[in-house]
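Q: Convert this sequence to structure tokens.
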Amino acid sequence: MPSIFLSYRREDSSGFAGRLADSLESEFGRGTVFRDVDDMEPGADFIEAIHDYLRKVDALLVVIGPHWLDAARDGRRRLEHEEDFVRLEIEAALEEGKTVIPILVGGAAMPAESDLPASIAALARRHALVLDDNAWASGVGRLKDALRPRLPASPPEAPPPRGPSRPLLAAGAALLALVLVGVFLADTRWWGAREPGVIGAWTAQVAYDWGVTHEERFEFRLAGREITGTASFLGQRRTLEEVAFDGTRLTFRTRTRAQAGRELRELRHHYDGIVEADAIRFTLQSEGGFSDYAPVEFVARRAER
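A:
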């Protein structure tokens, strides 16, 4: 039974949708992703099938390419037609209370609420994930992490057959010991993140190069073996991406959007920090948007509890 519904326009992002479906099924299993191209029964009523699948799936991924918003028919944007399939898919998912995640591909920007029909305007308030050709694997990895707790658990694996021979048991134990030793010695980021580490909350007064100053808050948490968390930009919390920590140097990235009139562009913020006993000395470099930005240096200190 599919757990994920991919919504997309064929002429806008068919290639991206197919690539994404393959990536997700490699993680969650064959048949877990619904796409009309592969999964629609011959002769099926498309609208009835959409509603049936959306009642059963756990998440809707809206794949938005550069021509998704402006695709037209009969002189009007397709989204303005009440029978537009993409509009119907989003409406149904929002009405059912499903997890809805916009996926930006091909350099597309997230539509504003004012660009969408009222029935799907809530889509603009969903946090979008960007899939870039140059960082496809890491982007899909973040999407899998977001989907995993929202999808049904995989069935338990069948128990192994009884009665392995003694030589096989001995060889397996020896191999396991070698693997554990290798992990212990090689995975320095894990131990660096735990002792003494950066885990916890930090604050800093950040004077941006265009003349404003904000108190920003940084929160670092452990999720399994990875560092996750948030970093605020202009007072708004942003999710950390591509976090790396070797015990001394901490780097990560966040994203925001800049708007000029009706045009939206993505801003990428790269943080490079040196961790000291009670401080992190950061250099922030922003790129994208509508301007060039000079590096900003600031010091974050542990927040009072």
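DSSP finds seven helices and 16 strands in the chain.
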